[in-house]
Amino acid sequence: MSGPIARLRGTILETERDALIVDVGGVGYRVYVAASAIERAGAPGEPVRLYIHEYCKEDVHQLFGFLTAEELGTFEQLLSVTGVGPKGALAFLSAMSPAEIAAAISRRDIEALSRVRGVGRKTAERIIYELAGKFTAPTGVAIPPGLAARAGDDAVAALMAVGYGAQEIAAALAQIPGPGEASTEERVFLAMRVLDRWR
To answer: Is residue 113, in this structure, part of any structural domain at all?
Structure first.
């Protein structure tokens, strides 16, 4: 279950292998983060803002931090899967972006998911079984003409699954290689770079 802490804003005191020590009003919080977030968060002495999942279970009380709402949402979806704990969910975000995870789940790519360190084939299969319906493009969304022709595009489904709007997806995809010119993962990564510049 998640506790009452939802956000932290403070100064990085130290960086550890898998965590940041964040000073918030004179209190140092150890916040576990994905390996990919350590460098992106900044260096000691720099300010940081984190979305927080406060993990409380029996005698365990840990904070897990994320630089974006999409990363937090993906973490919590993975955590809902039977047998996936917080460190396991974090391992996915250390190896893949939210959009890459969504794309792998939506196309039922067991091999891509099982390449994550510490994840076996059975766990990958369970993730796909329990989350496949949650990582596809939502129904009932008004898709503009520029995106309608891409309705079967895995990159569209992945980007919509992590919260980007149809119009901004259409505009971003128009600026990157098409399905036959790059893999889904590459296209999602490039599209997210475009989208992040606009936000």
So the answer is: yes
**Domain interval for residue 62:** 7-66
CB 184 within 8 A of CB 103: yes
15, 197, 161, 147 alpha-carbon torsion, rounded to 10°:
-160
Same domain, 42 and 74: no
21-68 pLDDT tens trace: 999 999 999 999 998 888 889 899 999 999 999 988 878 889 999 998
* pLDDT, tens digit, 9 for 90 and up, residues 1-20: 556 788 899 999 999 999 99
Residues 6+ apart with CB under 8 A from 156: 137, 147, 150, 169, 173
According to DSSP, the residues that pair with 57 across neighbouring strands are: 60
Domain tally for the chain?
3
Strand 27-32 and strand 47-57: the pairing is unpaired
Torsion of CA 177, 181, 185, 188, to 10 degrees: 20
